[in-house]
Amino acid sequence: MPEMSKAFIKTLAIDDVEGLFLSLGEKPYRARQLFNWLYEKNVESFHDMTNFSKELRQALDERYDLSSLVLDDRLVSALDGTEKYLFKTRDGHFIESVLIRRDGTDEGRLTVCVSSQVGCPMGCGFCQTARIGFRRNLEPAEILDQLCHVRRLSGVRNNNVVFMGMGEPFLNYENVLTAADIMNYSYGFHLSVRKITISTCGILPGIERFIDEKRPYNLAISLNDADPAKRARYMPVEKKYPIETVAALLEKKFPVSRNRLTLEYIMRKDNISPEDARRLKKMFRQGWIKLNLIPLNRGDHGMELPTDDEMERFVKELEIMNVPVSVRKSSGKDIDGACGQLSGRRYHEAGKPDAGVRQPGKHCDTTVIK
Questions:
Q1: Which of 120, 127, 339, 364 is catalytic?
Q2: Could you give the C-alpha distances from 121 to 114, 151, 262, in angstroms and in order?
Q3: Residue 311, pLDDT above cutoff 60
Q4: Considering 39, 193, 341, 355, which has the largest number of Cβ atoms within 10 A of its Cβ?
């Protein structure tokens, strides 16, 4: 009879761990100690938890797996030090995570971009994750282990996390928020709520729930077009959750006292006209937003990249919105680690990826919402 797979310890929230220790005849404070070992000290074995008895370590090891992911490949950008990791799940799926060094060093802002699903069901035309379709949601342990492995492998402690990797976070709401809470928890990774950003392409029920539950994390909306017809062409989510409806909800319910809402806008050749700028200014006139402009990255999406002059004119058109407007520098382009390039390479490359330099534009996954 095959051996049953053990559960992942990192899927448990703090209350669950307290209950676990009570069932083992231990005091609830052991839960805080366990979290400290898992996330602060980032150990690789229960047997490293030296303030637990040998019997307790053995009991945990018999019931739970400490890690849910195995490293399959690691690439480092020669341009800016960005690192991309290909991880394999226990059931044989592949996901990618990215470590972004803002200024190319370990001294500034260190961001880990994590995935929330294997593949993605949203079908956005400019995103390479859309090419493999949706496989399954990631468990909290598989989200948190991306951070654990990246910290251990890179030797640096990131101070920022963005849920902008493979998948649509609000279609895996419970697991994503469980992971975010552990990232924020003082005995977990202890990251400030202002350093955790969850991005969505516009899942209206998830956005409304996020606001109603008063979740403290930063919210980012992947907008990319203010023209509904044009947006529907590249983002099928527009047909189910129109961006005008999303904008109306945000204007009504998004609290002024929170961090600004970030609007992410991928600049293509066909969405940076003066008319596009006027639509954008009309749709989002509130002072609590900030606009993050992202040049379209090269890929096999068949879209035409804008010129520097065209993007500069678009930025000037938007400057009178009286909101912060920034152009995001794409990191890790030479290793397909930039925005829209994560693909879980195993789904479209035959055999073991070559150890040499990958050609930009070879990526991976998605499916379309009906």
A1: 339
A2: 17, 29, 23
A3: yes
A4: 341
What is the enclosing helix (H) or strand (E) of 339? Answer: none
For 312-328, write each residue's pLDDT tens digit.
Answer: 999 888 877 777 888 87
Amino acid at 273: S
Q: Phi-psi bin for 262: left (phi > 0), alpha (psi -120 to 50), beta?
A: beta
| Whether residue 310 lies in the annotated active site | no
Phi and psi of 225, rounded to 5°? -155, 135
Closest-CA residue to 276 (of 299, 257, 293): 293
183 within 8 A of 191, measured Cβ to Cβ: yes
Dihedral angle computed from the Cα positions of residues 331, 334, 339 and 343, in that order, rounded to the nearest 10 degrees: -140
Q: How far, rounded to the nearest angstrom, does the alpha carbon of residue 228 sit from its chain's CA centroid?
A: 25
Active site residue 339: yes
Scan for tokens 């150990």, then name that residue.
Answer: 43
Q: How far apart are CA 196 and CA 220, in angstroms?
A: 11
Give the domains, in start order, of the chain with CATH numbers.
Answer: 7-65 (1.10.150.530), 69-347 (3.20.20.70)
User: Bridge partners of 291?
Assistant: 263, 325
Q: How far apart are CA 12 and CA 367, in angstroms?
A: 30
pLDDT tens-digit map of 187-241:
889 999 999 999 999 999 999 999 999 999 999 999 999 899 999 999 999 999 9
Contact residues for 176 (Cβ-Cβ < 8 A; gap 6+):
116, 143, 163, 169, 170, 198
- The H-assigned helical ranges of 108-215 are 140-154, 173-184, 204-212
**How far apart, in whole angstroms, are the C-alpha atoms of residue 270 and residue 97?**
30
The DSSP element (H or E) to which 133 belongs, if any, is: none
Q: What's the predicted TM-score (pTM) here?
A: 0.88
Q: What percentage of the chain carries pLDDT values higher than 70? A: 82
Q: Which of 18, 96, 139, 317 is catalytic?
A: 96
**Distance of alpha carbon 339 from alpha carbon 268, whole angstroms:** 13
